[in-house]
Request: fold
Amino acid sequence: MKELVEVIAKALVENPDEVVVTEKEEGKNITVELHVAPSDMGKVIGKQGRIAKAIRSVVKAASSKENKRVDVEIV
Reply:
């Protein structure tokens, strides 16, 4: 899941070098933290959080194949 979030985020931002994705696994729960440059935060979140919701939906669909629950946090 880490790689998926990283690819999506790097495609959205102007500073792809500053995209950092970390993954923490606790049983069946996985937390993916996305760190981007402050100037790119709006591009990742989108108007009314639409892009953030879309990223979470894609990750949720991909994680359902592995029977894991994935939470994406934008930090």
